[in-house]
């Protein structure tokens, strides 16, 4: 990562969380994202890829927060918050997709001549929509953040309660477990990619509640490599599909060698995924989430298995 492009830090929700506390944490993250985008606008183009990446990560953090508090908001307000974060992420998705695919291509062991590699890279660029990012795109994302912050001010936070957060965190953990079992049982690619999404939602939701020193960090820290390995599988699947539909195919033997290399990489990630999942889901996600909530609320250990 560029030395001048910093990662954001989530402002952990306090145990006496109110709607306004959630708003302050969300506004804090939006401010960090906006500052990075503004620096990116005045910085060198070499930093654009990392600015885009960190901005999209922040939108995932915000969307995980919206999912976490969704039971305490009206359906319309929750939908608007999700849409606003999705707009920012989507406006930069092409540039990120291109960067990831070119990086994945560069990790393969298949030997390619400079001309062949350049031709494949050009084809990938042609196939990816909105792949170029510039100062105008970053400025546009800043304006979308301003709109999102305005929406935060219009939300009615009065009905949000702590038990809404406890309920949704548990639902997220259980959903990730269900998708894991489905993906493992039937080798369902769609379930695998949905599982990836909800693993990351769960990870970011936990980060809104758990301080660095928490005992839960031991198993929580496994969620990041799990999400990364699932993301690698997703990137490989997209690149395999893209290689298959390029308008001007390269040498067939080269294409087959690349696909075989990608499939080998996919299998290695899949083995890693199952190793991590076996450790994470060794205890029911509902119990893990309940313990996290009790730690967040500072509930004495002898009462931790009582209902909230």
TrEMBL record:
Read off the Gene3D superfamilies from this record.
Answer: CHAD domain
The record ties this protein, via InterPro entries, to:
CHAD_dom, CHAD_dom_sf
SMART domains membership: CHAD (SM00880)
From which organism does this entry originate?
Answer: Marinobacterium sediminicola
The residues the entry assigns to the signal sequence are none
- By its UniProt entry, which Pfam families does this protein fall under? CHAD (PF05235)
Name-wise, this protein is CHAD domain-containing protein
What are the residue boundaries of the CHAD domain, all occurrences included? Answer: 15-285
